[in-house]
Amino acid sequence: SVSVKVLYIGPADKKNQKKISLSMKQIDADPWDSVAQKIHAGDKLSGKVTRCMDFGAFVEIAPGIEGLVHISELSYVKRIIKPDDMVTPGETVSVMVKEVDPNARRISLSIRDAEGDPWLEVSDKFRIGQVVGGTLEKKETFGYFISLAPGITGLLPKSKISAAEKPAAIEALKVGDTLTVTVEAIRPQERKISLSPGDAADESAWKNFAQAASHGPASDLAEKLRQAMAAKNEK
């Protein structure tokens, strides 16, 4: 047995039968009537992906309530071309509520904000002068983009490559190859990291050691050598 609401009663036909339209859905209150009290911007929720479109994915975050995750809000880490490359219908995902508009029956959601922005912690993971390993992500005429961590990409300018100890070796690299680079500058608000070749940092460190050793007494040479070797091994 179910409860229904009568929507329409039509006239009798030739067989003296009437058509009656019913609704089970309208027995329950419209969930959008109370959405403003239950869902707010900034809430982190779990929902089920209902369908994927070219512009994003729809996620049901409550019975009868769907929100849109625009394609630009799918990931900080990956460049998404098609939403179904990231999520699939029926999949349960975590989302962050960005905006609620009950009158328009629209809710804007974000998967990438729910996962967290890797750039918020970039200053804790990297420091100026640090030598790190990276992966060549893309080559451009003005420089190479190097992936340092998921969602974190730095730029190795062309001018820095030509000034490297072995520029030909860097220029011969292919997308996906690994290399060592030095962090030159970090600008988290602009989401930018400037890089230089890693061998340039090694060469500079040894030059500084050689200059310091040549001006110091012979008795200090062993200690300076030990410190320099330790610094190089850390890199």
Return the structural class. alpha+beta
Elements, N to C (H/E)? EEHEEEEEHHEEEHHEEHH
Low-confidence stretches: none
Strand residues, percent:
35-45%
- What characteristic shape results from the CA principal axes? elongated
Distance between the termini: 73 Å
Radius of gyration (Å) = 30 Å
Could you describe the 3D structure shown?
It is elongated and about 95 Å long. With about 240 residues, it is α+β, with helices and mostly antiparallel strands. The longest helix is centred in the C-terminal third of the chain and has 18 residues, at about 200-215. It has 7 helices and 12 strands. The chain has a 5-stranded mixed beta barrel. It has a 5-stranded antiparallel beta sheet with strand order 10-9-8-11-12. A two-stranded antiparallel ribbon has the order 1-2. About 25% of the residues lie in helices and about 35% in strands. Helix 6 runs antiparallel to helix 7.
Q: What keywords describe this structure?
A:
five-stranded antiparallel sheet; 7 helices; five-stranded mixed β-barrel
Summarize the helices and strands and which ones pair or pack:
Elements: E1 5-9, E2 20-23, H1 35-38, E3 44-53, E4 56-62, E5 65-70, E6 92-101, E7 106-110, H2 111-115, H3 122-125, E8 131-140, E9 143-149, E10 152-157, H4 158-162, H5 167-171, E11 178-187, E12 192-197, H6 198-215, H7 221-234
Parallel strand pairs: 5-7
Antiparallel strand pairs: 1-2, 3-4, 3-6, 4-5, 6-7, 8-9, 8-11, 9-10, 11-12
